[in-house]
């Protein structure tokens, strides 16, 4: 599947809505995620406190970002990790490729990392002729299918079990002919095991970077991060600088929030703190460890007053609860990060000019903010991006004209009242049996629904007449 | 319509007024909202009747327009400010400002301060207006301790909690509490009662097809309750859901603003099944 582009959002939406099964496939995952999250939160009386604590930890670290980055670097260097700083996506992916070339790597394993997607690492590796092995089960599926991820936690949610059966039979060396999930998982495991052991370099993301130890934390359910990191000679971590927290004690409340908000579980199967390369007495581990710390728009977000977005711990709860995401799916957004958090991030990672339509594809209903484990005011941030689009005139001219005309009227109440009463007359002319089925200038509404017929006079007209009748009578 | 209000149950109004002595001297300014003004004036009259029954003196400033949501949500901060200035001037002298819509009330309560944050004088006035502004149904219960009496409506209702009212202003218990006093009316819980209906102001015309998918699902949930009435506190959501139900040929359920039911004005609704009888 060819990746959609953010600038083609309208067409992407059309294509998504035209897919008959897409909604049902999305719902299979999001409905379950919603229910499991609700149950996990209900069983976690300390949720609101953890949320406040998590928000505080993030806000504090973001506020003193320079201090903690320096501390992290110092401690990571002390355990022998080689630190690289990348200010853009291109720089980050070039650093990784250069390390691969230095080590003449032919095969790399990767554990799931949205930052890796963000910096275009998959394409960069593929284009340089290095064999890339995605080791997360869902990433494995979309690698076989050639799809971009459609969700930040379940990247293959748009693929059905039938799709997976077909893909595995086509691509696995020793495929299963069973259609049971357990057999399909075993088939993937057989395929991936030898690759884990023969990779030259393992590349992982990071869920948290701990400043006081220079370590990186991964959270998975499959153990693939551990198998990606331990066997190869070289381990490369790519991480956004917002992953930083002061210490393990600070990561714990965020971990409790993350797993519950993402999958509704109290904890995942594997939570590992990685501490650089193998030390003299270690039984195993990489001989060399690199960390690529990526800015790619993050410090600019801080400067632009979008620091609340840097709290994001990538749990995906906002998209699981978003009425728009649930109908159009992740690919329609045309960006690495979809849904509410993606609509706020993409304008910073890409550009607002390219990704402003997504900021309007939201009813501002507030559900995403309600479920966000770190209280990110997503609707407020989306609205502020709309204000930036407005100032930069990215809005289509007709929209601007309509809104401006409306605002011009609304600040002149008497004229506004008069135009409203004319509107009522016009609508009455278009009505039949209490309803308007179509009306000039109202196609956006009447294409899909009817409009109720108004009363003959506006409230104000009726109210004034009533008041006059009262005073005349008195 | 006007006769209805003049002939309202005077005794009921008086007894409620006594119960609400604490605000009996209070002057309420009614912010009508665009949709009530043009599409459903009966909601405005229902609001007046309920507020008077609850012991308030109601005035409707004639020089009012819109709360500014279409401009604000489109990102036009300057346009929003212009609208905010005149709304503040019109309403700041009341003891309370009451709005028969969660989203318009939330706009005045939460967002005027956002666009005026760099103008200290206006900000103070916006903060004052925010502090006296209330959504109608929550105002009746939380401030007036109002209980409707002598209202009857035969049938069952299901309730859609509009997003702004529910999430920004915590309107949830109040309408249900008052509706429990309507004789003959049963509640049928709605699956996904607080999930967005897909209206979203300009969203529903800008992204009409996404909005349509969302409201189609909402309509299915509404129909599954087999209720006679779909109630809510926001005209936008009600028009969206009612419009979809009607387009799909479902005449068995009627959408009403909760104020219309509580004021006993439900049967007069235009376009409704009771009106055509």
Automatic annotation (TrEMBL), chain A:
<keyword id="KW-0677">Repeat</keyword>
<dbReference type="Pfam" id="PF13183">
    <property type="entry name" value="Fer4_8"/>
</dbReference>
<dbReference type="InterPro" id="IPR017896">
    <property type="entry name" value="4Fe4S_Fe-S-bd"/>
</dbReference>
<keyword id="KW-0004">4Fe-4S</keyword>
<feature type="domain" description="4Fe-4S ferredoxin-type">
    <location>
        <begin position="308"/>
        <end position="376"/>
    </location>
</feature>
<dbReference type="InterPro" id="IPR024185">
    <property type="entry name" value="FTHF_cligase-like_sf"/>
</dbReference>
<dbReference type="InterPro" id="IPR004452">
    <property type="entry name" value="LutB/LldF"/>
</dbReference>
<dbReference type="InterPro" id="IPR003741">
    <property type="entry name" value="LUD_dom"/>
</dbReference>
<dbReference type="Pfam" id="PF02589">
    <property type="entry name" value="LUD_dom"/>
</dbReference>
<keyword id="KW-0411">Iron-sulfur</keyword>
<protein>
    <submittedName>
        <fullName>Lactate utilization protein B</fullName>
    </submittedName>
</protein>
<dbReference type="InterPro" id="IPR009051">
    <property type="entry name" value="Helical_ferredxn"/>
</dbReference>
<dbReference type="InterPro" id="IPR037171">
    <property type="entry name" value="NagB/RpiA_transferase-like"/>
</dbReference>
<keyword id="KW-0408">Iron</keyword>
<feature type="domain" description="LUD">
    <location>
        <begin position="69"/>
        <end position="294"/>
    </location>
</feature>
<keyword id="KW-0249">Electron transport</keyword>
<keyword id="KW-0813">Transport</keyword>
<keyword id="KW-0479">Metal-binding</keyword>
């Amino acid at each position: 599947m060819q990746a959609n582009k953010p600038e083609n959002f309208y067409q992407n939406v059309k294509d998504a809505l035209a897919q008959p099964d897409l909604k049902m496939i999305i719902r299979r995952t999001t409905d379950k995620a919603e229910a499991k999250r609700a149950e996990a939160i209900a069983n976690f009386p300390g949720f609101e406190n953890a949320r406040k604590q998590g928000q505080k930890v993030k806000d504090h670290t973001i506020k003193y970002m320079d201090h903690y980055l320096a501390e992290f670097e110092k401690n990571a260097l002390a355990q022998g990790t080689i630190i690289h700083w990348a200010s853009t996506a291109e720089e980050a992916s070039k650093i990784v490729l250069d390390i691969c070339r230095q080590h003449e790597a032919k095969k790399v394993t990767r554990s799931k990392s949205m930052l890796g997607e963000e910096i275009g690492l998959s394409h960069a590796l593929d284009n340089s002729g290095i064999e890339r092995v995605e080791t997360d089960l869902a990433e494995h599926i979309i690698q076989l299918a050639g799809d971009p991820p459609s969700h930040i936690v379940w990247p293959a949610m748009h693929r059905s079990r039938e799709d997976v059966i077909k893909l595995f039979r086509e691509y696995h060396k020793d495929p299963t002919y069973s259609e049971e999930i357990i057999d399909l998982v075993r088939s993937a495991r057989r395929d991936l095991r030898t690759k884990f052991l023969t990779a030259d370099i393992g590349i992982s993301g990071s869920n948290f970077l701990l400043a006081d130890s220079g370590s990186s934390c991964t959270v998975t359910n499959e153990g693939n991060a551990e198998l990606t990191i331990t066997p190869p000679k070289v381990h490369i971590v790519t991480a956004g600088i917002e992953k930083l927290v002061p210490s393990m004690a600070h990561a714990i409340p965020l971990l409790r929030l993350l797993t519950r908000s993402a999958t509704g579980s109290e904890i995942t199967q594997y939570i590992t703190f990685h501490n650089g390369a193998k030390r003299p007495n270690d039984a195993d581990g990489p001989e060399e460890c690199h960390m690529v710390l990526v800015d790619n728009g993050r410090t600019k977000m801080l400067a632009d007053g979008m620091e609340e977005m840097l709290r994001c711990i990538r749990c995906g709860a906002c998209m699981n609860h978003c009425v728009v995401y649930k109908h159009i799916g992740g690919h329609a957004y045309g960006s690495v990060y979809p849904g509410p958090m993606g609509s706020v991030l993409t304008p910073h990672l890409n550009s607002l000019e390219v990704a402003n339509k997504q900021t309007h594809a939201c009813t501002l209903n507030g559900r995403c903010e309600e479920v966000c484990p770190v209280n990110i005011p997503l609707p407020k941030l989306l609205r502020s991006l709309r204000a930036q689009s407005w100032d930069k005139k990215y809005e289509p001219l007709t929209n601007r004209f309509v809104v401006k005309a409306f605002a011009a009227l609304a600040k002149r109440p008497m004229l506004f009242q008069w135009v409203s009463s004319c509107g009522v007359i016009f609508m009455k002319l278009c009505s039949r049996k209490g309803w308007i089925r179509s009306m000039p200038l109202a196609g956006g509404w009447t294409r899909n629904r009817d409009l109720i017929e108004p009363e003959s006079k506006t409230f104000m007209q009726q109210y004034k007449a009533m008041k006059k009748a009262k005073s005349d009578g008195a | 319509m006007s006769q209805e209000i003049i002939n309202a149950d005077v005794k009921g109004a008086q007894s409620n007024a006594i119960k609400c002595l604490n605000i009996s001297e209070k002057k309420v300014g009614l912010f009508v909202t665009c949709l009530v003004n043009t599409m459903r004036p009966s909601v405005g009259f229902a609001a007046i009747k309920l507020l008077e029954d609850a012991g308030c003196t109601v005035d409707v400033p004639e020089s009012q327009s819109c709360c500014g949501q279409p401009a604000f949500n489109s990102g036009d901060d300057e346009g929003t400010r212009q609208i905010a200035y005149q709304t503040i001037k019109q309403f700041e002298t009341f003891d309370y400002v009451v709005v028969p819509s969660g989203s318009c009330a939330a706009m005045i309560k939460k967002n005027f301060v956002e666009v005026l944050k760099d103008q200290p004088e206006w900000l103070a006035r916006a903060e004052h207006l925010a502090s006296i502004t209330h959504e109608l149904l929550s105002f009746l219960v939380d401030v007036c301790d109002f209980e409707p009496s002598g209202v009857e409506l035969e049938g069952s209702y299901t309730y859609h909690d509009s997003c702004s009212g529910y999430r920004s202003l915590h309107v949830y218990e109040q309408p249900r509490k008052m509706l429990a006093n309507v004789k003959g009316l049963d509640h049928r819980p709605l699956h996904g009662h607080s999930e967005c209906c897909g209206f979203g102001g300009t969203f529903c015309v800008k992204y009409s097809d996404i909005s349509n998918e969302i409201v189609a699902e909402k309509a299915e949930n509404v129909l599954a309750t087999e209720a006679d009435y779909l109630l809510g506190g926001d005209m936008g959501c009600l028009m969206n859901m009612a419009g979809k139900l009607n387009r799909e040929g479902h005449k068995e359920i009627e959408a009403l603003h909760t104020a219309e039911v509580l004021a006993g004005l439900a049967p007069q609704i235009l376009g409704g099944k009771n009106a055509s009888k």
